[in-house]
Amino acid sequence: MDGLNQLLRRVPVWSVYLLGLLPVPGLFFLGLTGGLGVEPVKALEHEYGELALKLLVAVLAVTPLRRYAGLNLMRFRRALGVLSFIYVLCHLLVWLLLDVQIPSQILADILKRPYITIGMAAFVLLLPLAVTSNNASLRRLGPRWRILHRLTYPAIALGALHYVMLVKGFQIEPLAYLAVILTLLALRLPAIRRKATT
Amino acid sequence: LGLSTLAGGAKAETLEPNSWDDVTSYCNFYEFGTGKGDPAAYAGQMTTEPWSVRIDGMVDRPGAYDFQQILSEMTIEERIYRFRCVEAWSMVVPWNGFELADLLNMAGVQEGAKYVAFETLYRPSEMPGTAYRVLDWPYREGLRLDEAMHPLTLMATGIFGKPLPNQNGAPLRLVVPWKYGFKSIKSVVRITVTDQEPPTSWNMANAREYGFYSNVNPKVDHPRWSQATERRIGGGLFAGREPTLMFNGYEKEVASLYEGMDLAKHF
């Protein structure tokens, strides 16, 4: 693991941003050219949303990976977090501008449909985190920064719930995401943390 | 209501059918998976020959009807219908098929019958999606007898003049153009005429969201999707939405079936 950690230290953080951002225009281009099937709007919305969830899982995995496996990805955590927000934003923009489009229907959807209400709540929770994901905010907020960024936990849980509620019938994939996310969150409970380290 | 009325009403405006690709690549057929592309990817393994449909319940001539025998007795015609999914997308499909009423008359509907129940093939060895209890298999649907006997109600055997691809419900499926797509049950193996309202799959899974009638109605919202508008498949990334029509545009033909009913309650 030490060798791997040394190798990772040589990976520049900007390369994570670059690689992570490629699917934004990539998927859009696929949608334009038929690569996402005959209903590209929904496909694009789902692709961005699922990538956001995957990146959020990665963010959440950084600490347990270091604690239990000795793998140090801490340098990349902010990049993963900022990228996940970008995908949440893309997901939301596709929904607003390409999917629903009609302002009155957008408002009605947010108020009347619980899975959309929950998705919007998760987005709102992520907003202050995205805005303060820079060194200046970190310095200015001091210890409050860490407390603020615990909002990641409810935001991710709401994101998973949003996916579970959105699908029809009893489907495995969203439940798998929810299980992984709840596990990663549970690993942070003090009781479990103590048990695992003693 | 004869065919001439159909031609005047349902077909008066020229409906531009979707492409073969649109119709055959974007399907809901959960027996093969919940992704829209899963049916096209996995339905090929479904054996559709031989195929027989068991017709039972309150009929004079119950039994297993061979699909080829049914075909030989029915007149196949083309019907270009709007198809509106409860997920708020839509297509226009050129179906080939015969009226369900003709099939029911072949079996002889008995006095006192009120409903018709349908069942989809349930064959786990050929249907990977049934490994998960997404729904309580086999898939079931139902119609009131007058809906079933309505001349718009079709048993489709083909699209675009070709036999139905498996992902679209080969070899024989129901098409009820004024109801949400899930009512148009695919790959039918059993038709039961009864005097009881039959249980239907989506209603069993979530009664709050899916009613027995499930008529297309822009004024009655589904808890999950607004039904006021729809997106026509095939329009690309910037297609936008179109207003949804009452009874999916077949109001003139079918509104009388529901006279005096509160459609917000009987959704």
Automatic annotation (TrEMBL), chain A:
Coiled-coil region(s): none
Cofactor(s), names only, from the UniProt record: heme b; FMN
TM stretches of this protein: 12-31, 51-68, 80-98, 110-131, 151-169, 175-192
Subcellular location: Cell membrane; Membrane
Cellular component, GO annotation: plasma membrane
GO molecular function: electron transfer activity; FMN binding; heme binding; metal ion binding; oxidoreductase activity, acting on diphenols and related substances as donors
Boundaries of every Ferric oxidoreductase domain copy: 49-159
Keyword Metal-binding: yes
Heme among keywords: yes
Swiss-Prot/TrEMBL keywords: Cell membrane, Electron transport, Flavoprotein, FMN, Heme, Iron, Membrane, Metal-binding, Transmembrane, Transmembrane helix, Transport
GO biological process terms on file: protein repair
Principal subcellular localisation of the protein: membrane
Topology versus the membrane: Multi-pass membrane protein
NCBIfam families attached to this UniProt entry: PRK05419.1-5
Protein family membership: Belongs to the MsrQ family.
Function, as annotated: Part of the MsrPQ system that repairs oxidized periplasmic proteins containing methionine sulfoxide residues (Met-O), using respiratory chain electrons. Thus protects these proteins from oxidative-stress damage caused by reactive species of oxygen and chlorine generated by the host defense mechanisms. MsrPQ is essential for the maintenance of envelope integrity under bleach stress, rescuing a wide series of structurally unrelated periplasmic proteins from methionine oxidation.
Subunit description: Heterodimer of a catalytic subunit (MsrP) and a heme-binding subunit (MsrQ).
UniProt name for this protein: Protein-methionine-sulfoxide reductase heme-binding subunit MsrQ
Organism in which the protein naturally occurs: Phaeobacter gallaeciensis
Name of the gene encoding the protein in the UniProt record: yedZ
